[in-house]
Each structure stands twice: as structure tokens, then as C-alpha cells.
Amino acid sequence: MGESKKWVDFAAKHLCPGVGRISDFVFTRGSGSRLYTPEGKAILDFTAGIGVTNTGHCHPAVVEAVRQQAGTITHAQVNLGLNEPLLMLTERLLGVVPKSLSRFFFWNSGAEAVEAAVKVARMHTRRPGIVSFQGGYHGRTFMTMSMTSSKHVYSAGFGPLMSNTYTAPFPYCHRCPSRTVPTCDIDQGCCGLAADQFDDFFKQNVAPQDVAAIVIEPLQGEGGFVLPPKSFMEKVRSFCSQHGIVFVVDEVQSGFGRTGSMFCIDGHFNVEPDILVSAKGLASGYPLSMIVSKPEFMEGMTPGSMGGTYAGNAVSCAAALATLDVFEQENVLGNVHER
Questions:
Q1: Cα–Cα dist 314/322, whole Å
Q2: Coil, strand or helix at 292
Q3: Cα gap 252→41, rounded to integer Å
Q4: Which of 106, 169, 219, 222 could share a disulfide with 312, CB 3.0–4.6 Å?
Q5: Each residue of 125-138: pLDDT tens digit?
Q6: Spatial CA neighbour of 272 closest among 100, 90, 95
Q7: Dihedral sign, CA of 328, 329, 334, 335?
């Protein structure tokens, strides 16, 4: 294996063994849908960087935007002032996200963005409880791994986990234990079991008036690419509105074209979130995440309560702007529909 073998042995000695890897390949460059080893071996990246490189590895437009921005300003710290790429990106995203959402906060990773959504929800409602769903994945920080139940490896040995987090049943129509309706599918003939389980959960586990937010993936990724029935999403949306709970949709993995529309919530469900979370494909591989909310949910937040050293980094924002250009100019969503 030559050069690769040397680095694999080096990594085994010096890198944290807590990072799981599916291969021992060493990558030196990427182009389109392929990655390359030091020996020149081409590897087809079926994962797209785990839902990140939605425009392909090193798309020329993204690369050029990053080069230009890196030569202009790389770090304009968000707590010191405003950087132009961040403002331009916000303006562009207003035409992409659901119409009722208009207040943005940018961070670095998906887990951080989910935490930001939790902060906004708790500040707005003055309640502690956070409900997520069985099989969901939201991150590896203490808050988000407390909300994650796709695999126990993410939290095993790290307890105690965060309090006031609750896990509700998630509908899995393909493996529904009821199957009382012969034509049962995600759109028609739903037996209603998931809705009944949701009601029972709130009767048995936590009072709605103690819940700040319900956080849901509209398409579970780690949980098995599971799409809930439309009626279930409508049920959760209605329940949140009825009880003053913030409805948070985690589109870290499903957003930016992964399901045929810019966001899964747009293309598959007739509901709007109070807060939308996005990352991964947002900037074609550069560290950038965001939450966008209905304006009233961020009103009254104390200056200084949100922020971060690299939040809304200028180079990452430039990469995100170029990503949006590629989506428009190359008809990415249209290509997804054709295939």
C-alpha cells in the first residue's frame, strides 16, 4: 500500500480511536463523485461525504469562490461586526427557506445548530423539556447525544446525559406492527397507530406545558431512511401549535436537495416549522450550519447569548453562496427529479 500504509499506521498511533471509520483509505484529493488515494486509486464516494458534497467534491464554482474570499477576508468574527458574505447569504436564503421563516443564526456544525435551536426554544417558551424521536440522530455534543437514539454508541459511557430530554415513538410504516390497512403506506390509509402512540407518550412521559420544543427529522437518516406519514407530521405540527411548543425540523442531512426538493419539509409535507435546522450540504463541504426561525421566536434574545468564534465564517459563507449558484445554474433539483 506504500504511502497510504504509512499514514494508516501513523493514524492508529496518534489519532483518537473514538472516531469510527468505514475504511483505511487515505484520501489526497476529490473530484466530482470520486476520491483519490496517494497511489492514484479512484474511490466512488456513495456517501457524498455523508450528505455533504451535494455539488460534488471540489466543484469548480465553489473552489473559485473560496479562493477569492480567502484572498479578501477569511475571519470576520461575528461578535465584532458583520461580514458581507454572511449578509449576502442571508439575503439569498430568504428566497429558499419556507416563507414564514426569516431570522437566521449561523454556526459551524449540525450538532451546534440543533443546540442553537434548543436555546432559542427554551428562551422563547421559558420551558425545559425537549422531545425527540426514536431512531433520530442529532449529533454528538452532550445535548444532541442526549436527543439521539439511532445508536447507543454515541452516548455509551458518557453519562449522565442531559436532563429534560424525552424520546417519543417514531412511525415506521414499513415495519408497522398494526398493518390493519392493506394499502397502508406513508401517504394513504394510515392506520393511526403512530398518532395514538404520540398521544400516549404525552400522557405518560411529560406534560406538554413543560416542553419547549419537539425536534424531528422529516426523513430519518441514521434511523434507516424512514419517512413518516404526512398525517403524522400534521399531527405533530398541530400539537405544537395547540400547546405553545416550538416545532423544530432538523434538516441537517435531508436538506439541500437530498430528497428532490431544497428541503424535505417543502417537498413531502404540507407543514411549516417554527425553526428549520440545516448544515452539511449548505456549503459543499465547508463548516457552516444555520437555524432560521419565525421572527417572533428570536425576538427578545439577549445580545451575547448566541455566537461563536467561527460562526458565520466568511469563507464558508462564500462557499454556500457558490453552492446556491450551482443549484440554480446547473438545475440540480431538476436533475434529481429526472433520476
A1: 12
A2: strand
A3: 31
A4: 106
A5: 999 999 999 999 99
A6: 100
A7: negative
